[in-house]
Every structure is written in structure tokens, then in C-alpha cells.
Design goal:
GO cellular component, one term: nucleus
Helix content: 25-40%
Strand content: 5-15%
Structural class: alpha+beta
Shape: globular
Order of helices and strands: HEEEEHHHHHEHEEEHEHHEHHEHHHE
Keywords: Methyltransferase, Nucleus, S-adenosyl-L-methionine, Transferase
Number of domains: 3
Distance between the termini: 43 Å
Number of helices: 15
GO molecular function, one term: protein-lysine N-methyltransferase activity
CATH architecture of the largest domain: Alpha-Beta Complex
Number of strands: 12
CATH superfamily of the largest domain: Rubisco LSMT, substrate-binding domain
Strand order of the largest sheet: 1-4-8-7
Largest sheet: 4 strands, antiparallel
InterPro entries: N-lys_methylase_SETD6, Rubisco_LSMT_subst-bd, Rubisco_LSMT_subst-bd_sf, SET_dom, SET_dom_sf, SETD3_SETD6_MTase, SETD6_SET
GO biological process, one term: methylation
């Protein structure tokens, strides 16, 4: 038995010894040759609805179950993922930790862009990932929130070991493998702005939030777009992974990380799906404003932006996907941003937005927006496709993201170019459906 297999068996035995129930129809399988690490396979035919495993909440790792909660009073005051990350930093290398068999099967190295060198990061230039890696924000969270606690408690932490590097490892594990347990609620930590809004709103439904937790065994299931056949259910006394369709003997069992585009899959989990039906591209609002308002009076431009945001048409970004269609909100925003002073004054007075008609001017502006978005990539689509067979690992993943995004932009541009122009008349104002916007990443 290899070390990899021994660790898997020790983890399995630990689960069972601590109250987990695991079906005899599943087993671990080594998928490292497919860059998928450890996965779960069906050893017998499984029917839809079968429980694959059941986990008591006592086996989950969170700020509620870690012994650190009784030793660090500041834990509950930390924001977001920080309490769980600090608990993991405390537990991960303790030989006597209750979760040691679990930590032994979790990765310590990651292929997410957070850990890439500068040479590999250059391959992401132009993609939607660059502004979302968040390394500086992550570093600031450690230095401002966690490091002071670590220094304050030398009896619990070793500054040399419990450092920024370990923080990034634990943070990456939380981002990739944690679940939100809606059955366990904690008081929601709010910003000053949120507190002020609460004072003006009597509704207290949002005063609690679900508990972010690590779920041993659930995170052993891999993801593959279109192959999801299992789902985690949160019951009052346990968590259960159930088959959501029939699974044949020998098939891998897949959970789902959601309908994510390749940019998000790479950023969060370090892999991509070469054939991803959920790929998309963001057209940022600033690009739209720059193209449409070039040479305009600054005060008028700001008024238009404020008006569009109040009406819910202009957002941080507009999303285009594999339907290759222009969002109506983008067309509306272009009309408003390109309007004359008198036309805009009329819109303000009526407090209504124009209809999303693709006029000659709107069509030209949208074509320019798409072309400028394409210019952000330092290479062409043809160059990328030729290079794809010559690279591997991080560079290959970056190429797949770039190729997917470029294809969407090009197909959308082609779709716009062949779309007939609407009647050349400034559209009559109308209300825009604020709920119809596609959700951005």
C-alpha cells in the first residue's frame, strides 16, 4: 500500500470511528494521473436518492468546533473567512489535532493564480482573472487581522510557523473546499454602512448568516461540468451526500462547484474545463463609459452615470456568454451615455430609460466596446490556439481561459455586426426591468 493509499485509509477509518456512515458502494480512487488528486468512485451501481455518506456535525471543522474558540476571545470578531482560516492555521500542524487524518489528505500545494510566479501570471493578461486574484487584499487581511492575534498568543502560535505562507495555504483550502452550513447560524458581522442601513430598516432577517465550515469527505468529490451526480444535503442533525441520478459501477462521483466560467474555476480551484458551457466575459462599466462619453463635459457625464446607476441599468460590468447576445442594459446605457444634453434632460424629467433598440449609433459604440475589450489581450486567438499544444500546467490553463473569452467576444461581435439596425429614432423612454440583468461573477 502506497503512502497515498495509507493516508486515504486512515482518513476513511477516522471518519467511521467518529460517527460517519459511508456506503459500501463507494471507495477512494487515485486520479492524480488526470490531475484530479483523490476522488470517489462507485464500486457498485448506485440509484438516485441513495445516501453515499452521512456526517455528524461534530466532525466538521469550523470556528464552532475548533478548540481555539475557548482560547482566543477575538475569534468571533474576525470578518468573513478569517475565523475558519485562523482555526485551520492553529489545527493543521498539531500532531494531537482531532482533524489530523483529515489534514493529511488535504493538499498543501495549489495551482491557483495566487501561487503563480510572475512569468505564469503574464499569461493571464487581458482576462477577467487579473483583478480578482486579490493577493494584496489577502495579505492585508493577514497583517491587519490575524497577525496581531498570533503575536498576542505566543502560547498558541509560533510566529515563524504561523506565517503569511501558512495563511495562504489555509485560505486556499477554505476557498476551494469549504461549505456554507445554513443549519448553523451566527450573528452577522456588519460594516458601518450596513449598520447604518439597519437603523433605517426595521427588517432584521439578515442579522444572522450561515456557518462557513470544512466538511471532511464531501471535499473528496471532484467537479466536472455536466457530470454532477451527487449533492450535499444539510439535515438538522447531520450532512448527507446523496446521489441525484443513477450512477453505474466504475463511474466517478462528482459534486458540483456551481455553474462557473473557466476564469472562476481557475481562480478558485486551479483547473479549467476545456469544454465549458458556462464560460463568460465581463465588459466593465468604465470601458463602456470611456467609449460612449469621449470628449463629453465631465459634469454631464457624471450625471448620466448617476442616473443610470439609480435606474439599475449601469453596473460594474455587463456579462456576455455563449448565447453571444448583448444585454439590453448595455444598449440602454449606451443610449443614455451618448445622448445630447437636451435628450438627457428629458430622460431625467421623466425618470425613464430609453428602449434597448440597436440604432446605428448604439451598434457602432457596442462594436467599439467589444473591439477594445479584445485589444486587452497581448496575443491573437490564432496565436493562442497554435500555442495550446506546446504548453502545459499553468500556462495551458491560462491559454484555455484566454481562448474561451476571446471566442465569446468575437462571436458576440459577429452577432452584433449582422444584426439589422433599428429605426433611426431616439427611443421613447421606458422603465427597465432591473431583475432581468444577468448576474455577474
Amino acid at each position: 500500500m502506497t503512502t497515498f493509499e495509507e493516508k486515504g485509509k486512515a482518513f476513511w477509518d477516522w471518519l467511521v470511528a467518529n460517527g460517519a456512515t459511508i456506503s459500501d458502494k463507494i471507495a477512494f480512487k487515485d486520479y492524480r494521473s488526470e490531475n484530479s488528486g483523490r476522488g470517489v468512485i462507485a464500486t457498485q451501481d448506485i440509484k438516485e436518492g441513495d445516501v453515499l455518506f452521512s456526517l455528524p456535525r461534530s466532525i466538521l471543522l469550523s470556528q464552532v468546533t475548533s478548540s481555539l474558540k475557548d482560547k482566543v476571545s477575538e475569534l468571533s470578531e474576525l470578518p468573513g473567512w478569517a475565523p475558519l482560516i485562523l482555526c485551520m492555521m492553529y489545527e493543521i500542524d498539531k500532531p494531537e489535532s482531532f482533524w489530523k487524518p483529515y489534514f493529511d489528505v488535504l493538499p498543501r500545494e495549489f495551482s491557483t493564480p495566487m501561487f503563480w510566479n510572475q512569468d505564469d501570471l503574464k499569461e493571464l493578461e487581458g482576462t477577467d482573472i487579473v483583478s480578482k486574484i486579490g493577493k494584496k487584499d489577502s495579505d492585508d487581511l493577514f497583517h491587519n487581522e490575524l497577525e496581531p492575534i498570533i503575536k498576542k498568543h505566543p502560547e498558541l502560535f509560533d510566529e515563524k510557523k504561523h506565517n503569511l505562507e501558512l495563511f495562504h495555504i489555509c485560505g486556499s483550502l477554505v476557498m476551494a473546499y469549504s461549505f456554507l452550513d445554513e443549519m448553523q447560524k451566527l450573528p452577522k458581522k456588519k460594516t458601518q454602512e450596513e449598520e447604518q442601513e439597519d437603523e433605517e430598516d426595521d427588517d432584521d432577517d439578515d442579522d444572522e448568516e450561515g456557518l462557513i465550515t470544512m466538511v471532511p469527505m464531501a471535499d473528496m468529490l471532484n467537479h466536472k461540468a455536466g457530470f454532477n451526480n451527487a449533492r450535499l444535503f444539510h439535515e438538522p442533525d447531520c450532512l448527507q451526500m446523496k446521489a441525484i441520478k443513477n450512477i453505474k459501477e466504475g463511474e466517478q462521483i462528482y459534486n458540483t462547484y456551481g455553474d462557473l466560467c473557466n476564469a472562476d474555476l481557475l481562480r478558485k480551484y486551479g483547473f479549467v474545463d476545456e469544454k465549458n458551457d458556462f464560460d463568460l466575459v465581463e465588459l466593465d462599466g468604465l470601458l463602456v463609459v470611456d467609449v460612449c462619453c469621449e470628449g463629453q463635459d465631465e459634469a454631464l457625464k457624471e450625471k448620466k452615470i448617476e442616473f443610470l446607476m439609480e435606474e439599475g441599468a449601469l453596473d460594474e460590468c455587463f456579462v456576455i456568454d455563449k448565447e453571444y447576445e448583448i444585454p439590453p442594459e448595455l444598449i440602454v446605457s449606451v443610449h443614455v451615455l451618448c445622448s445630447t444634453k437636451d435628450e438627457f434632460k428629458m430622460m431625467e424629467e421623466k425618470q425613464k430609460l430609453p428602449k434597448p433598440k440597436l440604432t446605428k449609433e448604439a451598434k457602432e459604440k457596442i462594436e467599439t466596446i467589444l473591439k477594445k475589450r479584445l485589444e486587452r489581450y497581448p496575443t491573437s486567438l490564432e496565436d493562442d490556439e497554435l500555442m495550446l499544444t506546446q504548453v502545459k500546467d499553468n500556462k495551458k490553463n491560462a491559454l484555455i481561459v484566454r481562448i474561451g473569452e476571446k471566442k465569446i467576444i468575437k462571436e458576440t461581435l459577429a452577432n452584433v455586426e449582422k444584426t439589422p439596425i433599428a429605426v433611426e429614432k431616439r427611443p421613447a423612454p421606458q422603465k427597465v426591468d432591473k431583475q432581468s440583468k444577468k448576474q455577474k461573477k
